[in-house]
Amino acid sequence: MIRTVKPKNARSKRALKDKESKLIENVKTALFVPGATSNKALHDISVDLSALKKPDIKRFSKKNEVRPFEDSSKLEFFSEKNDTSLIVLSTSSKKRKNNLTFVRTFGYKIFDMIELLVLDNFKLLQDFRKSTFAVGLKPMFTFNGEVFESHPVYKHVKSLFLDFFRGETTDLQDVAGLQHIISITAGEALEGQPLPLVNFRVYTLKTFKSGQKVPRVELNEIGPRLDFAIGRYEEPSPEMLKEALKKPRQLEARTVKNIETDVVGDKIGRVHVGKQDLNKMQTRKMKGLKKRFDQVGEDFDDPIYDDEPANKKAKI
């Protein structure tokens, strides 16, 4: 572990303060680490993946002897040393060729890991027509296949890629910023593989006039084109998962008593009053409501109006 050092100047003090927990966390930075058995193909794939993640990336140039499923202490050291919560380790062996291990950390401890083995039919950015997008824009995502909602491993894959390319959290929405889309599809399973492949595709958006209110949209593939086979994976422990999903009290929505929101979105308030005794209500402020003007009693009756005068006797 890294020993804690008291900051000696303002620069180191700001650096330590930036590492502290915040109500709204910083953008997650990805660290690309080449393993001792990494090759040129994995290097090129890592460069293309880091191009999609820019500018929130760091890359190691030297190879490192790391075996994450046997001993993850080195990755935890790299995470704390470089202040990164996403790590991509590239290794290759006869049993697991062109293997990318995606690691997420929480509090500089390993949260979860999954191995994605790249098949030999991959294509890089340089194999497509040169069509790029602005750096730092957030991509749109499509997940094609029911397994991304039902199978726990593919739920892990979906959560991983959404977390990897999430970028900065903001409420600003600009249509001009929707320039590329990442499509992830559950493909067919290879022979001897129990789980289907994961097809990774990247497209740019182009809009054209359609003569209607909505423009015509076309997708152009720009790469990289990667087909992943699922390898080993490690899920987070229940205690760490509970701690990671905990929200600070300052960000929790406070419930206001007796105020609800209906389907339309209007606020409805409820007022509670005590029991009222109407017999004790003061209603005799007006002259017409005085007690002597009360029209109650046995002698009171509505007047009878005859067609003839009252002093005329009726004829027999």
UniProtKB/TrEMBL annotation:
It is found in: Nucleus, Nucleolus. GO terms for biological process: maturation of LSU-rRNA from tricistronic rRNA transcript (SSU-rRNA, 5.8S rRNA, LSU-rRNA); ribosomal large subunit assembly. The keyword DNA-binding does not apply. The keyword Nucleus applies. Keywords: Nucleus. GO terms for molecular function: rRNA binding. SMART domains: Brix (SM00879). PANTHER family: BRIX DOMAIN CONTAINING PROTEIN (PTHR12728), RIBOSOME PRODUCTION FACTOR 2 HOMOLOG (PTHR12728:SF0). This is Ribosome production factor 2 homolog. It comes from Wickerhamomyces mucosus.
